[in-house]
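note to self — DONT lose this again. spent like an hour looking for the file last time. sequence + predicted structure for the chain T wanted, 361 res
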Amino acid sequence: MSLTRRTQIALAGIVAAGVAAAIVVPSLTDDTTDQKNVAAARDTDYGPEPEADSNLVTRTDQISTLATATISPDTMINRARTWLTANGGHQVPYSMQRVWKDGYRQDCSGFVSMALALGKPGLNTVGLASSASGVTKHLSSTSQLRKGDLLIDASTSDGDFRHVVIFEKWANTSHSSYWAYEQRGSHGTTHRTLSYGIGKDNYDPYRPLKLSGSSSGGGSSTPSTPSASWPVLKNGSKNTDVRSAQQLLIARGYNIAADSSFGPATRSAVIRFQKAHGLAADGVIGPKTWAKLIVTVKYGTKGQAVKAAQNQLKLYGYSLTVDGSFGPATKSATLSFQKKHHLTADGVIGPNTWRTLLGTR
């Protein structure tokens, strides 16, 4: 028995997550063992969902909310974000049978149904992708993806399992990976970078039909300022946004390393910063903490806050030396970025420019 590419990827992800001991690579000569181990792998990651006629799946005639009202991409993402901490400050656990306190099923499609405010307990992936449900439309290319869109593998014809994730923003200028929210086994609600659907796999891009602001077409990865939202960083996060946050903390006087890894030292500094500024001291850098943490920088400014801004500008393709000195090259890049994102082009990196730098990839 040969594993599909999706199953191989899932197994590799499970090993990387440190649970390799729970998975045994199927023998190529024992079909019974193959089936048991593949089933175990599916249960450990994200598995086959309830069938379309299951009582755990919302009937299409029960999709009342989206049928009568729109939901903004920011509202959808904020709804998804709530499950990261809804379980007493932790992720909502994964389950294909249980429903969470809000009435939505705790698997990947139940999570997406919750984010879209669909009927409870939620559609499965087939229902989310089906034109008969009237919830989404199929996009012709991943280049069209923007905040609030979905990547769905709704087919099981290849023996694989189904899954759906919420696209938030591109993680890089090459569009080879993106930030996403998903509900997955052994982890629960997760916010991380993914590449599902970018290569040759079974994922297809879809757009919710009643997502406000999504009817104009096109695939911009740089929405205008009102739809830009601060990233949420917490213990375990690893990326350039973390490095920028660390550099801003250093600029505020905290002695930590700017290593792009959100570990105990960074969390401790965040908690101290939050307490000092009258914020909820949860160690998570969300919108309210970002608003207090950012430092306005402009021509002539020097220091760690400038390095943070330069790191962000580089993610958008600007060729800059991260030297902590806001000189002509940094000002030119800032002006160009502001013009492209419909911001006031003053060359000053203040709250709106910071939010757009951090929230539109």
